[in-house]
DNA sequence: ATATATAGTTAATTAAGTTTACTAACTTAA
DNA sequence: TTAAGTTAGTAAACTTAATTAACTATATAT
């Protein structure tokens, strides 16, 4: 148990209140007597703390226990609706925003396309503000009840000051709008900005329910590639936010992002289709450079030989990448996200079998929340922030 | 400020005492008035805490300040000799043990060759016990003053229970002896066991004085290769202790350990010497398989062309390895250790120039403590452990 | 009905903080 | 030399929030 602040009686009282609150949140509805046993605090102290927590609205009585003997206990439970938080994903093509309660449950959610045409600073800012205002109005949640916000940003975020750089192309120029300082001015509650893939990784880490000693790599592959790392239970960013920026990793077939992105898959498909001498209708797999790689996955599910061969080749490359990363990092879990995450049914077992040679084989999984990963991570971060503000 | 335990008055008092102690350790000799200002605690509270710390022997008065005005302050300072700790490196060929004070300063140090012949369990255990007994006797430090011990082990250590596996060849069979539970029975103080390279990484991390947000990779290359990672200020072990086990990383020229170990360097030298058509006395570089690679470094320092060419080729491989690792991990600092660390004068600038293409270029350094890295890391870990025990 | 067990409150005590006011000791300058 | 001003450290009174012990309230079992 470390401390940074001086321990005054008031601080101690606050500490004990949150010790009790944590126990209630973690252990569900409990009686005062239970809480006294679990925390080691005396019954009067627990009662007094509960009274204050009820007064603050964080906790409420919720019926009685069915004991075998003795007086029935009054149970108290966490009131997740005491406050709300905002979690958002500012994507290159779309905005997702969610209002969640303090239990992390999303109460109101909206997905919006970004404004067409040139995304200037003012357009971007106005769009953000109006979207958030709109969601708040729809939900009927009062401003005072909103306590924190977190934004997932497709770019590099400086953890020190929340400033933003290296945004994806469609958002370029909006760095100043998405900086933490600016967002906090607009909303105005405590705000964090964080790289989108890092938030996705956090969401998967939490929902996996793994121990704090475990680590997780979120490997996002779509139009581009990215990685998010959770180590010691928190986001590991690395020098200049570069941890998990896997795009530049060299594989035997070339640069990771060139080889494994949807564009890389398309090129691989084109090459293999040209070499393919067997019969059958394979022309539709030769998608044009501007097209998508979606047909390949459909073809695999239909069992077409060429598509299967392409995917086998692709998985060789994917396994090489994951293998290298695991040799360096040894994550407990690797989660596939982005475009790829949605094809876990095809990829996971192929990848699994190819990683047999690895000394420490991680648990493999596909993203369990799909394209909502980032928003969920943002919500979770916002909830954490709101709690931290209350504790302080 | 988090808390796991209930906040009783006694706990609060202890917390405040250690808050003050930390400030004294971090800030050097200070007056009670200074401490009151820095910690935010009132002067009477500080005075009372200091009285208790002096009574416990952790702190002592140390003269008076030279103020410009007013009454001269009595300074108090940390007394590092209040307790002692043991740090050890159990190597394949030798044992290093150190007795250090609570300031981490090594007071007594001994380096011993492991017993010749078959290293059975009993031989290993007796040797350990006698070595430690001997050092304690030499130092004249009483058993009661010894408060913790840490052992660096060349193998995989399970952080959960401190058990040991995959020991290097010479120590194989001594797993049970080096397990934490057994060592704690022998000494008997709180004991930690930890992988040796991880401890070396910790030693470098601490002595570099970097911020907690920084991360460090200790890249040890000798007869074998190993890596230690410090992330969020603590050792990151990864799944099954596999983080930083770089040996199996595939480079363009083959498996990392095969290519970069002293043996790999020797093979590279042999290959290049055979191809070498130039004149000059190069025969001595063709060392026999049982020899060492040491001649190459000497030859480089003498400026011999073949040796220089070999090192250039070797650095290409080294840069490929470090580059891959940095792309995944983005450590703030990379430290070269083991055999290689001692040739930083030759390697560092060559490596530096080859990493120019890297997006996030880490600080490069050679091990600053050489072959004492592990013992220093062990001492530091033991000191931390001793403090943790006192706080609890 | 009575005994026993459990939940939660009240009252007295204790620990450790704070503030306020003091004494002690030192420097500067009339 | 003496008075004024400044800083260090202590003493006393007060405040907060913990504890224990005793009590009340409410349940089940015999």
Characterization of this structure:
Two copies of one chain form a homodimer. Chain A folds into three domains: 9-78, Arc Repressor Mutant, subunit A (Orthogonal Bundle), CATH 1.10.10; 83-202 and 373-391, Nucleotidyltransferase, domain 5; 210-369, ATPase, nucleotide binding domain (Nucleotidyltransferase, domain 5, 2-Layer Sandwich). In chain A, 44% of the residues lie in helices and 21% in strands. Chain A contains 14 helices and 17 strands. In chain A, the strands form five sheets. A five-stranded mixed sheet of chain A has the order 6-5-4-7-10. In chain A, a hairpin with a 6-residue loop joins strand 8 and strand 9. In chain A, helix 10 (294-302) packs across helix 11 (305-329). Chain A is globular. The two termini of chain A are 16 Å apart. The interface between A and B is large, with 56 and 56 residues. The first copy, chain A, binds a DNA duplex (30 and 30 nucleotides) through helix 1 and helix 3. Chains A, B: It comes from Paenibacillus silagei.
């Amino acid at each position: 148990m470390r401390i940074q602040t001086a321990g005054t009686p008031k601080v101690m009282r606050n500490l004990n209140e949150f010790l009790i609150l944590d126990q209630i949140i973690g252990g569900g509805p409990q009686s005062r007597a239970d809480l006294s046993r679990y925390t080691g605090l005396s019954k009067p102290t627990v009662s007094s703390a509960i009274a204050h927590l009820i007064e603050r609205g964080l906790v409420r009585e919720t019926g009685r226990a069915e004991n075998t003997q003795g007086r029935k206990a009054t149970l108290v439970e966490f009131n997740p609706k005491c406050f709300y938080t905002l979690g958002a994903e500012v994507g290159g093509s779309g905005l997702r925003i969610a209002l969640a309660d303090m239990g992390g449950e999303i109460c109101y959610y909206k997905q919006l396309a970004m404004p067409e045409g040139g995304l200037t600073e003012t357009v971007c800012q106005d769009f953000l503000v109006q979207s958030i205002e709109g969601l708040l109005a729809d939900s009927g949640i009062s401003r005072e009840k909103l306590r924190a916000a977190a934004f997932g940003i497709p770019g590099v975020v400086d953890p020190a000051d929340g400033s933003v750089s290296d945004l994806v192309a469609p958002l370029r120029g909006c760095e100043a709008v998405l900086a933490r300082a600016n967002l906090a001015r607009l909303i105005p509650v405590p705000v964090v900005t964080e790289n989108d893939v890092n938030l996705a990784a956090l969401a998967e880490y939490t929902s996996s329910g793994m121990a704090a000693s475990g680590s997780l790599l979120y490997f996002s592959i779509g139009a581009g590639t990215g990685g998010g790392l959770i180590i010691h239970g928190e986001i590991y960013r690395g020098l200049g936010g570069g941890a998990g920026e896997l795009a530049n990793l060299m594989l035997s077939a070339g640069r990771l992002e060139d080889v494994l992105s949807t564009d890389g898959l398309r090129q691989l498909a084109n090459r293999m289709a040209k070499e393919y001498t067997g019969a059958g209708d394979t022309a539709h797999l030769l998608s044009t450079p501007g097209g998508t790689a979606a047909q390949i996955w459909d073809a695999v599910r239909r069992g077409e030989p060429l598509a299967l061969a392409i995917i086998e080749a692709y998985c060789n490359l994917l396994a090489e990448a994951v293998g290298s990363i695991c040799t360096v990092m040894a994550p407990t879990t690797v989660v596939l996200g982005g475009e790829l995450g949605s094809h876990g049914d095809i990829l996971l077992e192929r990848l699994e079998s190819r990683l047999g040679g690895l000394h420490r084989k991680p648990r493999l999984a596909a993203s369990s929340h799909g394209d909502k990963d980032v928003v969920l991570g943002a919500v979770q971060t916002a909830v954490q922030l709101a709690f931290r503000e209350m504790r302080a």
